[in-house]
Amino acid sequence: MTGAVYDRGYRPYEGARGGRTAARTALWRATVRRALGLRRPWRQKVAPFVLLAIVTVPAIVNVGVKYLTRNTPASDLDFITYRDYVGVSNALLVFVALTAPDIVCPDRRQRVLPLIFARPLRGVDYVAAKVGAMFTILFAFSFLPQVVLFVGQMLVSNDGALTYLRDNAEVLWQVPAAVALLALFYAVIGVAIASLTTRRIIAGASIVGLFLITSIVSAVLVGPTEEVREGNGFGPPATTEDGGFIGPDGQSFEPGTGPQKTDTYFVVRTEPTAAPLINVPALPLILRDVVFLGEVDPDGPMSGLDNGALYAAGVYALWVGAGLVLLLRRYHEVER
Amino acid sequence: MSAASPLLRTRGLTKRYPEVTAVDDLDVEVPRGRVGLVGANGAGKTTLFRMMLGLSLPTSGHLEVVGIDVGDDPIGVRARVGFMPEHDCLPLDQTAADVVATFGEMSGLPARAARQRASDVLDLVGLDEARFRPIAGFSTGMRQRAKLAQALVADPEVVLLDEPTAGLDPMGREEMLALVARLGTFGISVLLATHLLDDVQQVCDHVVMLDAGRLVVAGGTGSLLETTGTLVLDVGAEHTAIIPALAGRGLAVAEVGGLLEVEVPDEAGLDVVRDVVAELGLPLHRMSTRLTSLDDVFLTRATPSGEGPVGADPALPEAGGQR
Question: Which of A12, A23, A335 comes nearest B56 by C-beta?
Answer without folding.
Answer: A335
